[in-house]
Design goal:
Structural class of chain A: mainly alpha
Oligomer: homodimer
Strand order of the largest sheet of chain A: 1-3-2
Order of helices and strands of chain A: HHEHHEEHHH
Distance between the termini of chain A: 45 Å
Radius of gyration of chain A: 15 Å
Helix content of chain A: 55-70%
Number of strands of chain A: 3
Number of helices of chain A: 7
DNA sequence: TATATATTTAGACGTTTAGCTAAATAAGAA
DNA sequence: TTCTTATTTAGCTAAACGTCTAAATATATA
């Protein structure tokens, strides 16, 4: 498949757009943070991240148990991603994500993951 | 659905990319010309054109029995389409389309449609 | 009017995709 | 080592998608 077509396909899903937009604001996020943002299963997030990574949109970095993802689109798709970042944030759903992310980023990895497995320990 | 997501979805199909690329070169084309280019059923072409039109990427103009389509992306997607036109033509499949289109555009509507219904009348 | 024809719509069919649950993997902690 | 846990993989289901054929629509021509 054409590389650019694969990128377009990778971007034409709301949850994946949300991931890309989030990473446009946060430099890098771990899978558990994205899981918390999207409110879907970890497995589903993993699948979406895999699709984005395979399309060459994301790169990952492993650190202990956590895997961090960051945007890394190919140079010749720069114009596309610039358009994305500028125009896509306008939607209400993505504005809400922005707020949710602030909270998620503020919690810290360990507490976030504890929360996710239901220990209900941490900041509400 | 977010407008920009709908545009991305509309563009994430090879045949629709071929249509958009063709219209990037030819100003306007009728459905039968696009049918000849893609080599799929008229019904299928009609569906693809409908999806692109619904996403706001194309506009149509009726002239007698023929319907002509042309690119008409919304202003705030300009950057996206500029990227598309610049970067997407590099693929081999789309270069072949370019050649096929020259032939198709050279035939003329009436002869082309006669050809399509198998009368086998016209330039080979 | 009746016939021909370019396009669209409707319905069927096979493939792809997004989501889930459960099991597997990989890596720290006890 | 054994246990815990973050992530991925496998297998499933339901919905979405691309394509086809056949019928319907709209327009021109005889």
């Amino acid at each position: 498949m054409i590389q650019n077509l694969e990128i377009l396909k990778a971007l034409s899903d709301m949850n994946r757009l949300r991931i890309v937009t989030a990473l446009g604001h946060y430099e890098e996020l771990c899978a558990c943070q994205i899981t918390e943002l999207l409110q879907v299963t970890g497995a589903t997030v993993s699948r979406h991240l895999g699709i984005l990574q395979h399309a060459g949109v994301l790169k990952s970095r492993k650190e202990g148990r956590w895997i961090y993802y960051r945007l890394a689109p190919p140079a010749d798709a720069d114009a596309l991603f610039q358009w994305l970042q500028e125009s896509i944030g306008a939607s209400d759903e993505l504005k809400a994500d922005r707020k949710a992310l602030e909270k998620i980023a503020g919690i810290g990895r360990e507490d976030l993951c504890r929360m996710q497995r239901g220990e209900d320990c941490c900041p509400k």
